[in-house]
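Handoff note, outgoing to incoming analyst
You'll be picking up this chain. Sequence as last confirmed:
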Amino acid sequence: MKFHEMPYRRVTTEQVKEFCDSFILSFTSAPDAETAERELRRMFAFSLEVDTQTSLCFTRHSIDTRDAFYSEEMAHYDEQGPLMQLSLQKANDVVLGSPYRKDLEHSIGTLYFRKLENEKRQFSEAIIPDLQEENRLTTEYGKLLGGAELHFDGKTLNLSQMMPYRTSADRNVRREANAAYFGWFSDHRETLDRIYDALVRTRDTMAKKLGFANFIELGYIRMERMDYDAAQVKVYRDEVKRYLVPLVTELNKRQAARLGLDHLVYYDVDYLFKTGNPHPIGTPEELVEKARAMYHKLGAGEFFDYMADNELLDLVAKPGKETGGYCTAFPTYKAPFIFANFSGTKDDVDVLTHEAGHALQMYLSMREIDVPAYISPTYESCEIHSMSMELITSSKMEPFFGAETEKFRYMQLVDILRFIPYGCLVDEFQHEVYANPDWTPAELFTKWRELERQYMPDLIYDDGLMSQEDSYLERGGRWQRQTHIYERPFYYIDYTLAQVCAMQFYLRFDAKDPAAWSDYLNLCKLGGSRTFLGLVEAAGLKSPFEPGVMRDAVEKFRVKLAAFDDSRF
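Most recent structure output, in case you need it:
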């Protein structure tokens, strides 16, 4: 079924309650384990339909935040979602207390019950008003960014459409475009401050109502981190500071030399080459057809045909569309969906391959797995699929970039190494924020800038002509553009952990390891049927927390980058 043909029906609190009440009655009166499992699978089918309808609403709203119908529907789920969760939690409670639990664990798996126990720890009726407020605030933030209008180059552009100007070969254009981009955030700082302050306080309140000291522990539970904790994450971040940050500083010096600059200013960082950044060849439609051909050669053509032929790709930036990119799914139809904002830059290919990694995993898992809780893994595991796909396809980029392919490959590796410290910065910032929920907006800005100097020590905002927009960044305002900080707390270290795993896949593919592709596909098919570290092991990878893994990956990538004659670019 094509995307536009998929019918949307509002899910109501009354429907969810009625179903859950019926399920509780039939499940608790089951005479044997076989009947209990049959009833549980009836619950699975219902949850898939609920997920499909809410995902359709979310997706259509994010495609056009100005659409009044889906805006009203989003407001409905923001308010009613926590009430639906209450009914679902009551149903989960009877499953956890079932006299047939051991039999069900044998047939469905113990991880399912661990997930239910995890859900129970993060929810109670007492926090329903707080969950409603959290939903309302995150929707307000997304709508604010989606509705941004910047007047630049004689045009009215949204935030995503500014990217070509922000990476222009003309340094003056880069400077002015970045000033306009961050100027929008500076102009809306009061609203952004208000939303985030309210989110932090709301999340802290929820955590304390549930018996936690602060939101950090609750945040980890919400992220389903079952086999590592904040202490291990801190050790990992420290290794990034020790081994990776110095290499990134070296790469920045090489870039400044290539550009003929004494040093990089913030608006130079994303412009890597004197001859300009690589740009994909072709229209968005042509890029999709090139991707189709590439995935056929890779052995995943059936998957990509399904996506392209059923309108499951919405890739072009347009007015009213939310920023960023994501992959979601409509499980009733076993259909993944890719959302992006093409801007005519290298990022278009990056986001397409990244989200295709997510989509391939969902496509395979929805056909292999019959327990909804196992279809999608936790976020850090999900990002292995996407970030590995970016690197797996690196050897097949000639149709996209032509003569600039080698330039693309060099930039791809540099971007990966630069990203990990930034991702750790976002994570440490959030730990600091939720340990200090009473911080003022000024204190948040100060902490962000302090951490920037640790993870990105050569980042310079003052070019001697500091504007109000540059001053906003120098004071520490850059974090307000990072949607995850507002919308999905503690979802960012996941990208960096996955990146370390993806780097291992890249090195295996580069070495022509015959098992690399089958291991990758197997990882996708496993979905969320194992925890993060269990999936890493199943894929033949090493844990990012294992001593020496970060150091080894950095050194191998240092050697790979040294093999490029980047002075030619």
